[in-house]
Amino acid sequence: MFAVEARGLTKRFGEFTAVDHIDLLVESGRIFGLLGPNGAGKTTTIRMITGLLKPTEGYVRVYGMDVLKNRRSVLRMIGYMPQRSSLYDDLTVEENLYLYTMLYDFSRQEAKRRTEELLKEFFLDKFRDRLVGNLSGGMKRRLALAITLVHDPKLLILDEPTVGVDPPLRRQFWERFRQLVSKGKTILVTTHYMDEAENCDEIALISHGRMIASGTPEAIKRRAFGGELIEVLLDREPPCDPPEFAKIISVNGRKVRLLVDDYGGRSAQLMDFLRERGFKILEMRPVRVSLEDAFIRLMGERS
User: Fold this and answer.
1) Helix, strand, coil: what percent of the chain each, to 5?
2) Where residue 302 falls among pLDDT bands split at 50, 70, 90?
3) pLDDT digits (tens, 9 = 90+) for 128-144
4) Number of H helices, E strands in the chain
5) Considering the entire predicted model, what is its pTM?
6) Angle at CA 277, nearest 5°, toward 275 and 280?
7) CA 41 from chain center: how many Å?
8) What domains can you pick out in the chain, each with its CATH number?
9) For residue 144, which of 204, 205, 80 has the smallest C-alpha distance?
């Protein structure tokens, strides 16, 4: 059973279509990233998945349950961290955690126990008496993530959780996400940071409310370029007749970039091809393609 199944998900605001017939399948126990620039429709999609917005068309199921028909039950399974802070600045760290715990109908004793657990788990214990309004942006995001876990949900939906967070703390957040998945959680996360989306098990690229591509980061990069890139440095100018399994992408002096369907399977064949023609290979390496490169290329195909 999928943690999230969305089919034909569409949201219109008057004449404007914010989300246009998006299909999403999020497997349990994985990190799924919804990736795209600001204004792509990520937050609108998330709000429909959580039931905060009613789709114009399509439907969403969370663990097999229709979100609109079973919203109360679905909300018990979801931990939602919105992009904008839902913290109370005039309360302390501990008071914020305790308040949200009580909102989930914990008894006072259970609420205190759960608050203490989360203070320790997220290294917030020494900040328990500090007003939230006096916390740094990164510390607020850490507290917001802790609050998302108050009721021990199966599915975490995190909308731009690392916005405004410095790179070292961003890395810590993703390490935490991996730990949560190892404990059986499923994470649906939105981001416009192309580099951190590499940490997802699977991603969906969206732009202007439409799905551009979905799959593993490597599969999407392979799809964007039609294979994998190899860079070879030779002892002299490269040949103009590449092997039938490769396509020359660029030549810069003695350095040539070629496109192949699979680096692991074709590198040895390429080496044999060049050596048979008297070339000395000084260096051969795969060219790392970023998700940003893939996104730009796929966008160019759509325009």
Assistant:
1) 35, 30, 35
2) low
3) 999 999 998 889 999 99
4) 9, 14
5) 0.85
6) 45
7) 14
8) 2-215 (3.40.50.300), 226-291 (3.30.70)
9) 80
